[in-house]
Design a protein that fits this description.
22 strands; eight-stranded antiparallel sheet; mainly beta; four-stranded antiparallel sheet
């Protein structure tokens, strides 16, 4: 009788550990242009790099229960791409290319089927590996104008860490350099049309459908958080009786970061003020670098321990 009593807790404990410690797996399909991160055969996120798109992006990004946290081609603003980085640039004094508003770059104006003349293209994976609760892949991209001329080389590193109970952290790092050491590139940002990275939240999690925006300062909603300084911002909602959310962590400690937030479901961190809402040259000797994390969690910001996870992230514990 005593053996049975001891065995039952042991079995329960082993099942709990297995649920917590499911290993991450990378599933790559070059024909469809998809690399997925799976946990126990469940998709966490997928990196989309097919040439049909104007730029690589992550979609879907799934909640711990498997719900869609982001939207790939929303209405309005169908140029939004779930989780992505893009901007507007100038080459010399003549060519002005808006990679963000990709619909401006169709070969035939107003005809999406014609494809793009300016686009951001995935070139290769520098590495892709999964080891236990961590999966990492690095992608090399080219920003291309006029069908074939590369103007920017981008390196984008993704590190996914499983945190148990379906929660996970996506640590993003990026670096942009002029292609071929060119000296004529200018980033042309404004205050409205960019965040790095940019997230387009699925309508079921948006503020317009009851979702809650919260920053580390305690500010709430678009009116209190948009164009305000913060270290992190969380977007959470209760959908089908389950409370879940996604937070974005800024890694920048030396310079404060302002944020873009929208109740309809868009949010993300800006670059430091000196590189935000203004024009600046992108030089070979001064690459544009950045880092941020996406934390997918159960509960709202409090129940999901967002503040604690942020601290662990910036201290290198995640």
């Amino acid at each position: 009788m005593r053996s049975c009593f001891c065995l039952l807790p042991l079995l329960v404990m082993c099942h709990h550990v297995a649920a917590q410690d499911a290993e991450l797996v990378l599933q790559r399909d070059d024909e469809t242009g998809k690399l997925s991160v799976l946990s126990d055969d469940h998709e966490l996120l997928t990196y989309q790099y097919a040439s049909e798109f104007a730029l690589p992006h992550i979609w879907p990004l799934r909640s711990p229960s498997g719900k869609l946290l982001t939207e790939q081609k929303p209405d309005p603003f169908p140029h939004h791409r779930s989780l992505w980085i893009a901007d507007r640039i100038k080459i010399g004094s003549e060519l002005d290319v808006d990679f963000y508003h990709c619909f401006k770059n169709f070969r035939q104006s107003g005809v999406p089927e014609s494809g793009y003349k300016h686009f951001i293209r995935h070139e290769e994976f520098a590495d892709a590996k999964a080891d236990g609760q961590t999966a990492t892949f690095t992608s090399r991209l080219r920003w291309i104008v006029n069908e074939s001329t590369p103007v920017i080389h981008e390196t984008h590193t993704h590190r996914v860490v499983a945190l148990g109970n379906g929660e996970y952290l996506l640590d993003l790092q990026w670096e942009l350099r002029p292609a071929n050491d060119r000296e004529d590139l200018t980033i042309v940002s404004d205050w409205v049309h960019y965040a790095w990275p940019y997230l387009r939240v699925h309508p079921q999690f948006s503020g317009e459908n009851g979702g809650k925006i919260l920053s580390d300062t305690g500010a709430r909603g678009q009116s209190q958080t948009n164009d305000k300084y913060a270290r992190w911002i969380d977007y959470s909602n209760t959908v089908e009786g389950k409370s879940e959310g996604v937070a974005v962590f800024s890694f920048t400690q030396s310079e404060p970061i302002k944020w873009l937030t929208r109740e309809y479901g868009t949010f993300g961190p800006r670059r430091p003020d000196r590189l935000s809402g203004t024009r600046f040259a992108l030089k070979p000797e001064q690459p544009l670098k950045g880092r941020a994390a996406i934390f997918v969690h159960q509960g709202d910001a409090t129940a999901g321990r967002v503040a604690e996870r942020y601290q662990q992230y910036v201290e290198g514990q995640l």
